[in-house]
């Protein structure tokens, strides 16, 4: 049984839609996919706490981290979660789990890479095994489906121009497809990694 946890914060819905698309991809490989949303309400006096979410993360084989890019880095709500989850670092509970990351922002660049770099460092501190995005930008193959249209390899990026008049969040169709492929890739990598672990232990 391969269990994938997708843990993310989303203020206005784009990162949430991306997380759902990643889950669609992961479910092509395993039925055990948890979507775990971090919210500001889980933070009291600056400290994040949600025992149910932590229990699910502790037993997952892979954790996919997602945050919108705020001022070139992870959102404060997500950072509060990441810092609180350092409790798992003391016991090395997440060591050797598969890790991956995704982000969303309004500008084409928007310094999204800062978010992915931080998430990959965070995973490395836990001793996790980071998997990148792995999709060649489809335009290089003459395709127009928009897969990896932003050319991101460390993790998955999406972009939606800021809608100043409000309204429902929407995802670019290429970003949605990129996220689905990403979810499938991470689940496949996790399955493979778990088989190796069993073989080595035998
Ligand atoms: C506090 C704040 C900081 C932001 N900083 C950036 C930024 O550095 N780069 C960028 O391109 N967009 C920035 N944005 C825009 C968000 O990344 C964008 O609206 C994104 O879609 C939010 O994701 P969400 O819908 O999942 O909350 C910022 C938004 C907020 C609220």
TrEMBL record:
Segments traversing the membrane: none
Residue span(s) of domain Flavodoxin-like: 4-187
Entry-linked InterPro entries: Flavodoxin/NO_synth, Flavodoxin_CS, Flavoprotein-like_sf, FMN_Rdtase-like_dom
PROSITE patterns registered for this protein in UniProt: FLAVODOXIN (PS00201), FLAVODOXIN_LIKE (PS50902)
Originating species: Phormidium tenue FACHB-1050
Lineage: Bacteria, Bacillati, Cyanobacteriota, Cyanophyceae, Oscillatoriophycideae
Protein name per its UniProtKB record: Flavodoxin family protein
